[in-house]
Design goal:
about 50% helix; about 190 residues; mainly alpha; about 5% strand; single chain
């Protein structure tokens, strides 16, 4: 998320005294996160074997009934994956449910939040219970917003925003975390030790 400012929205109900528990682990600061090709090569079994029973239960519930995952269970799972380096700090921060980062551009020329983006934030801040749907909705909204920002021009025809890559970077982080989780859902979690 370099090169810009982010607006932070805490939408979890997690008491501030527990915020430190969910800070990035620092094991894999800049990435990359484990990607789908790594999962195909057997890395998912290695990751699954290191998960706690609580994380495995969250994955099993996500597989069986994806619309009933608590925000805290999801945050615990992604924090655990971040602590083992499977999710980079950068991707963890970009998809974190506790502090919702919204790229704002640079201080001299901040991105305006469109009505559509505000509606999306309101909708996903209600926590649908399905974290994969949440990531898909957020990634789609970010890409749509980034495309709109990219089309905006100054009166002389030059792009209004020098760099909208923070918006697309956060959308890509959502895709990477979603792919990792989907790969883990294809793993036999209880025979992986």
């Amino acid at each position: 998320m370099s090169g810009g400012v982010d607006c932070i929205v805490n939408n979890t109900g997690v008491p501030s005294s527990e915020w430190g528990k969910y800070k990035p682990a620092g094991v894999n600061p800049d990435g990359p996160s484990v990607d789908f090709s790594d999962l195909l090569s057997g890395k998912k079994q290695e990751i699954a074997s290191k998960l706690t029973d609580g994380a495995k239960r969250t994955l099993q519930r996500l597989k069986a009934n994806p619309n009933s995952i608590s925000k805290r269970d999801w945050m615990d799972l992604t924090h655990e994956l971040n602590a083992m380096g499977a999710i980079s700090d950068l991707d963890y921060q970009g998809t974190n449910m506790m502090f919702h980062l919204v790229p704002l551009g640079d201080m001299d020329n901040p991105y305006p939040t469109s009505a559509d983006m505000r509606d999306t934030l309101d909708r996903i801040n209600q926590w649908p219970g399905n974290p994969l749907d949440y990531l898909d909705q957020w990634a789609f909204a970010l890409k749509k917003w980034g495309a709109g920002l990219s089309r905006e021009r100054n009166p002389d025809g030059t792009p209004k925003y020098k760099d909208v890559s923070p918006v697309y970077s956060q959308a890509a982080a959502c895709g990477r975390v979603s792919s990792l989780i989907k790969g883990l859902l294809m793993t036999d979690l209880w025979t992986s030790k």
